[in-house]
């Protein structure tokens, strides 16, 4: 039995948690599972998380599709209800539907601004932010097959994995021997 140096009977370490809201085409959920696999973290929806539970983890990721230029209200609302902490590590990730020529690092960070500020105000430290394109058939776009069809693609999933591996380096949390395969 693998004990990781722990005495049998010790409570299991909580380590990392990934919280995601994804409904349009489950684009962000795909990213969530890639990251969670590297971090050996459970994936929960904002509805499944109790605000007090967040402080039991060493690292928490918050992810959402971008709707009206920000995270879903369920995550913004969760951030509002989180307990005040002192320097707990979190990270942010999202998928957006804007065309590639609009979407640069600044665009991604702007989409994250509202939740980032809420988390910072509560004492959380954002140690990484990830964003990539996702298939978008919102509104009239559905009549033209949508934007970013096929996204996130294999390239995006690999970038998400690299992002998560960097979180491992920054925190030492997770599953260093992950042997998952791209779908
Ligand atoms: C109601 C709605 C509003 C959206 N607003 C934006 C937006 O403001 N900016 C943007 O880049 N994409 C926008 N999108 C596109 C989504 O961010 C994109 O499709 C994303 O990948 C959806 O993630 P999900 O499949 O995880 O829900 C919007 C999509 C919907 C359905």
Overall description:
With 183 residues, the protein is of the alpha/beta class. It has one domain: Rossmann fold (3-Layer(aba) Sandwich). 31% of the residues lie in helices and 19% in strands. The protein contains four helices and five strands, in the order E-H-E-E-H-E-H-E-H. A five-stranded parallel beta sheet has the order 2-1-3-4-5, with helices on both faces. Helix 1 packs parallel to helix 4 and helix 2 runs parallel beside helix 3. The structure holds flavin mononucleotide. Flavin mononucleotide binds next to helix 1 and strand 4.
- CATH homologous superfamily caption: Flavodoxin domain
- Cα-based radius of gyration, to the nearest Å: 17 Å
Overall structural class, as computed from helix and strand content, comes to alpha/beta
Q: Report the principal-axis shape.
A: globular
The hetero molecules present are:
flavin mononucleotide
What would you say the CATH architecture is? 3-Layer(aba) Sandwich
β-strand amount = 15-25%
Counting copies of identical and different chains, the oligomeric state is single chain
Helical content stands at 25-40%
Main pleated sheet: 5 strands, parallel
Average pLDDT, rounded to a whole number, is 89
Strand order of the largest sheet: 2-1-3-4-5
Domain count: 1
One letter per element, helices H and strands E, the order comes to EHEEHEHEH
Span between N and C termini? Answer: 29 Å
Name of the top-level CATH class: Alpha Beta
Number of strands: 5
Helix tally?
A: 4
CATH topology: Rossmann fold
């Amino acid at each position: 039995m693998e004990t990781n140096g722990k005495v049998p009977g010790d409570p299991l370490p909580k380590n990392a948690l990934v919280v995601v809201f994804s409904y349009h085409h489950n684009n962000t959920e795909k990213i969530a599972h890639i990251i969670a696999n590297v971090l050996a973290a459970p994936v929960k929806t904002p509805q499944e998380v109790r605000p007090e539970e967040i402080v039991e983890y060493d690292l928490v990721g918050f992810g959402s599709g971008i709707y009206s230029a920000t995270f879903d209200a369920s995550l913004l609302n969760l951030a509002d209800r989180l307990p005040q902490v002192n320097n707990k590590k979190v990270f942010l990730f999202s998928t957006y539907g804007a065309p590639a020529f609009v979407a640069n690092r600044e665009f991604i960070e702007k989409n994250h601004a509202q939740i980032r500020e809420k988390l910072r105000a509560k004492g959380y430290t954002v140690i990484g932010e990830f964003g990539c394109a996702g298939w978008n058939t919102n509104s009239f776009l559905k009549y033209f097959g949508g934007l970013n069809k096929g996204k996130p693609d294999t390239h995006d999933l690999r970038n998400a994995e690299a992002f998560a591996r960097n979180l491992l380096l920054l925190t030492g949390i997770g599953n260093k021997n992950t042997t998952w395969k791209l779908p």
